[in-house]
Design a protein that fits this description.
Layout: H1 2-28, E1 32-33, E2 46-47, H2 50-68, H3 76-98, H4 102-118, H5 126-129, H6 134-149
Antiparallel strand pairs: 1-2
């Protein structure tokens, strides 16, 4: 029951935080990055406050989880998610602020997936049918992480 409350609480918090940050950013004219002198996949402007609210929500939800279940602090799964999410936030923030080169951003996204794999978090799909194909599971995990970060 506590987990359900945590889920709905963080979703509600994220919604409210997004509203606040969007209003704040519009007042100061930073709600989107206009076309710059760099090549992007799309010519339209992109919102830049979503990553901030997502990361703050992640931190608040994590803090509440640590209060509810202190043993989580010593979990390698929690550490992997925290490290990977923090790196993802820093990559996105740097990209929004400075227009990170796509190859550097891509390498950072791959490293987010590698962090999860190092800590034993990966998709198990190919190795279920054939244990020798574990490396395809790692590739699928990295592909999924990079895909989610670019969606």
């Amino acid at each position: 029951m506590k987990s359900v409350l945590l889920l709905f609480g963080t979703v509600g918090f994220s919604y409210m935080l997004n509203k606040i940050l969007l209003r704040f950013s519009r007042n100061f004219g930073v709600d989107s990055r206009q076309a710059q002198n760099i090549v992007r996949w799309a010519a339209t402007s992109k919102p830049t406050t979503g990553g901030i609210s997502f990361y703050i929500t992640f931190l608040v939800g994590s803090l509440i989880l640590l209060i509810m279940r202190p043993e989580t602090a010593s979990s390698s799964t929690y550490l992997a998610l925290f490290l990977s999410a923090t790196l993802a936030f820093m990559i996105g923030f740097a990209d929004d602020a400075y227009g990170t080169h796509p190859s550097l951003k891509f390498l950072g996204q791959i490293f987010c997936g590698v962090i999860l794999i190092i800590f034993g978090i990966h998709i198990e799909y190919f190795s279920v049918a054939s244990p020798g194909l574990w490396w395809l599971d790692y590739g699928l995990t990295i592909f999924w992480v990079v895909g989610m970060m670019n969606s």
